[in-house]
């Protein structure tokens, strides 16, 4: 179970021991309390009988690394690297093998030093001395223990005008909106690398496959300077990248320790962008040492070349799922998978039988199999109390011991462990990208084609946005014109007729009241849109006030 990434705790071992007792039919003869479980004395004797077992605190491992760092992916990387190693005769040339990667410094301190306090205190806190701003440091080291001056990326803007004077010698600086690496900054660093790299060629540069590291400009620049770029398989940097193996952790630990100690001198000091470079200048030589760098290349098996040097305990064994497969390949990959000359190393499910599964529910199966093998639908051990059959299909769903023991609530049983009688849909996951050399002509054409497709899609997307904006503007203009027309109509209807004190008269009869009308007659007027003169409806021979624009006879004849 530990090899599969699901180590068993002390409490689970006791629960599984009870399951073995019940499955073997010794519930009535055993002296073990089946309700409370085996005693601490039994646990001590269990450890004495199995001296190969020990108690450790488990480290967290991302699920992507579980499915990416497979033996097949590692073998694929070493097969490509060995060919380059032999082709360029690098056995005695460690100064030509480089590894580069970036690491972030944020608000998570790495220092775990124990501190002194009074006895009896339940909590002891340490004030955080770093800000929440994310600052990236891009490092590059060689197998000979040498280091290229680092590349420091600040978020937003540079800290001051004299930032170069306080930082590491010959360091490169850049800015990005959030303080992360991007394609433009990586190309800038590549020129910096060429400046400080040895003049002897060719050079092998090992790095991960982040999208900011792979572009057409990078391939052209490396090809012109005889630099071979070998990309690691996806999600394997914790095993195969020397910087992750032996350099970054000491660097961050030293940085956090020094930041905490600076708080003892000045309590209100917070390490931000302005103080970052001087602090990094002090701790960088103490962590990025020749000894640590060489140890990283040695443990990763890169120099000296040794596949057996890789720490296999960090590679989790993946067993097939209940459906017989662990993952189904994706329909397509967003990036070129490999060079045409190098077949991709695809992680395939193990062919071992499904006697155990990479879930806690299978632990009972593994332990119980020592006394009673389980077959068919009886993949998980069934407790002595038979569960009630399904009211629909009249079949009994096996119940796991962890649920029966109360470690996992029965209400979550179908969420954490699906019933054996229920068929699961296959989980579709994109397969991790294999190792590959990206400085070949074939891969250059693939990258160029990919960038052309992306540009075409961006142009189409931009054109769609422009068309939508144009149509939206046209609709707004039409709505504004209709509103203006309606407002003009409303104003014409609400416009008061000319009064005597205004000096306005009908342009035809020159009177305020139409001829022959009574005193109580309601006068209705109409105004010409061009000459702006008022007319009686009777004089203008108009039946009613029009809803549209109206022109008098004179304006109609001579507009």
Automatic annotation (TrEMBL):
CC terms in the record's Gene Ontology section: nucleus
Keywords linked to the UniProt accession: DNA-binding, Metal-binding, Zinc, Zinc-finger
SUPFAM superfamilies (UniProt xref): FYVE/PHD zinc finger
Region of interest: Disordered: 320-394, 449-502
Compositionally biased tracts (Basic and acidic residues): 449-489
GO molecular function, one term: zinc ion binding
Boundaries of every PHD-type domain copy: 503-558
Tagged with keyword Metal-binding: yes
Low complexity bias (residue ranges): 327-373, 380-393
Record InterPro entries: CenT-Element_Derived, DDE_SF_endonuclease_dom, HTH_CenpB_DNA-bd_dom, RNaseH_sf, Zinc_finger_PHD-type_CS, Znf_FYVE_PHD, Znf_PHD, Znf_PHD-finger
Statement: the UniProt record of this protein carries the keyword Amino-acid biosynthesis: no
Domain HTH CENPB-type: 1-56
SMART domains, per the entry: PHD
Transmembrane segments: none
The name this protein goes by in its record: PHD-type domain-containing protein
């Amino acid at each position: 179970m530990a090899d599969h990434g699901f180590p068993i705790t002390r409490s689970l071992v006791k629960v599984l021991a009870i399951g073995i007792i019940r499955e073997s039919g010794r519930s009535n003869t055993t002296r073990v309390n089946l309700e409370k479980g085996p005693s601490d004395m039994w646990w001590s004797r269990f450890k004495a009988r199995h001296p190969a077992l020990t108690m450790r605190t488990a480290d967290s491992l991302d699920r992507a690394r579980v499915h990416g760092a497979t033996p097949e992916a590692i073998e694929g990387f070493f097969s490509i690297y060995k060919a380059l190693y032999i082709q360029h005769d690098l056995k005695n040339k460690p100064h030509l093998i480089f590894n580069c990667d970036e690491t972030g410094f944020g608000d998570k301190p790495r220092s775990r030093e124990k501190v002194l306090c009074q006895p009896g205190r339940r909590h002891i806190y340490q004030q955080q001395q770093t800000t929440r701003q994310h600052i990236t440091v891009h490092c590059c080291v060689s197998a000979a223990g040498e280091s290229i001056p680092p590349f420091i990326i600040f978020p937003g803007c540079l800290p001051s005008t004299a930032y170069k004077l306080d930082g590491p010698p010959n360091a490169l600086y850049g800015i990005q909106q959030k303080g992360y690496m991007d394609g433009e900054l990586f190309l800038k660093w590549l020129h910096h690398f060429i400046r400080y790299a040895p003049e002897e060629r060719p050079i092998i540069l090992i790095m991960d496959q982040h999208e900011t590291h792979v572009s057409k400009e990078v391939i052209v620049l490396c090809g012109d300077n005889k630099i071979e770029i070998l990309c690691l398989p996806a999600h394997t940097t914790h095993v195969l990248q020397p910087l992750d193996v032996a350099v970054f952790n000491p660097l961050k630990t030293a940085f956090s320790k020094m930041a905490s100690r600076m708080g003892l001198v000045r309590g209100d000091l917070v390490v931000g962008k302005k103080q970052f470079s001087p602090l990094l200048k002090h701790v960088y030589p103490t962590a990025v040492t020749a000894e640590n760098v060489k140890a990283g290349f040695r443990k990763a098996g890169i120099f000296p070349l040794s596949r057996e040097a890789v720490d296999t305990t960090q590679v989790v064994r993946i067993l097939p799922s209940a459906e017989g497969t662990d993952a189904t390949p994706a329909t397509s990959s967003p990036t070129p998978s490999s060079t045409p000359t190098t077949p991709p190393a695809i992680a395939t499910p193990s062919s071992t039988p499904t006697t155990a599964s990479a879930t806690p529910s299978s632990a009972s199966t593994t332990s119980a199999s020592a006394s009673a093998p389980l077959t068919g639908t009886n993949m998980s051990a069934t407790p002595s109390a038979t569960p009630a059959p399904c009211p629909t299909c009249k079949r009994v769903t096996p119940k796991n011991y962890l649920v029966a023991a109360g470690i996992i609530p029965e209400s979550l049983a179908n969420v954490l462990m699906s019933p054996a009688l229920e068929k699961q849909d296959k989980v579709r996951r994109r397969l991790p990208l294999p190792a590959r050399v990206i400085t070949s002509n074939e891969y250059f054409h693939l990258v160029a084609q990919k960038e052309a497709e992306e540009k075409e899609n961006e142009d189409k997307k931009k054109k769609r946005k422009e068309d939508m904006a144009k149509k939206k503007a046209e609709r707004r203009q039409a709505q504004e014109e209709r509103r203006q027309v309606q407002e003009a109509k409303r104003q014409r209807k609400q416009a008061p007729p000319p009064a005597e004190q205004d000096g306005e008269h009908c342009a035809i009869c020159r009177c305020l009241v139409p001829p022959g009308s009574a005193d109580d007659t309601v006068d209705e007027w109409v105004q010409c849109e061009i000459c702006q003169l008022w007319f009686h409806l009777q004089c203008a021979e108009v039946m009613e006030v029009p809803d549209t624009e109206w022109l008098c006879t004179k304006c109609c004849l001579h507009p």
